[in-house]
């Protein structure tokens, strides 16, 4: 049974075809995508997603039964290692996932990057007639005003935006001058504003520009987190979080995890014992062989160890989506899920 069949009745044929490998996409076509997505307790959610070629996106969501304006988000997008799954990280607590069906269609996936269990329509379709979004939202990032024009590097986007010298800009620049002192540094702040196209400083074509409406205090010494990227398979500390459909319990003797050494060796822990194995990968294919563990007996973790070793031995393919690694068996079923974690260094 395919992974699509494992998680979803045959309700959306095009999505199933995509996940079965009958269609591939190197990335989403830049443009404006829109839909009215299903909602559990409302008539629907009006969604517009603007995908930019530079790896940024803007998203607006508006609930149809509510009077308030839509909620805006911005951030970065990348393609997962399978080149089929679009990953968005920005204003939401968790990444958003979409399947790229073709150059005009995206399909929303669930929070674990799997097809949504529903017969309802989760397609977003490109509409070239839509005007670009003008996001209005709270932004966190680094403001800098040196010898050149002022810039603001929003942490979710990771790229500097020019700042318009209008509305709340004068107060922002004065507060920045007091906070930075004699140093020429970028300082972290949170502000309210909108990103709209304005003519470039050199008189060229309009570029996305930040218009400041209000701001918070500056926080010297604070920086943004690293930008969104797929964690590399080799060299990353992968913490086991799921075996098939079952979440892995916390509080075991050792954290269940694996590290794929660049030389072809797998090292890690099963929750009780240390493990060592060999792996071979080519493209999306993966085989983990000759696995063995130490022989310590534990009050907890023996069942996790047994299931983890079976999942590793069953793995035939892999996918990294941001900081999430999925291993799939020969039937394309989820064998195990791991999350990238930062290792503590002394």
From TrEMBL:
Gene3D superfamilies registered for this protein in UniProt: 2.40.128.270, 2.40.128.640, 2.40.50.540
Give UniProt keywords alphabetically. Lipoprotein, Signal
- Location of the DUF306 domain: 231-332
Leader sequence range is 1-25
Residues covered by the NlpE C-terminal OB domain: 138-224
Kindly give the InterPro entries that the UniProt entry links to this protein.
Cu-R_lipoprotein_NlpE, DUF306_Meta_HslJ, HslJ-like_sf, Hsp_HslJ-like, NlpE_C, NlpE_C_sf
This chain's protein is named Copper homeostasis protein (Lipoprotein)
Q: Origin organism of this chain?
A: Azoarcus indigens
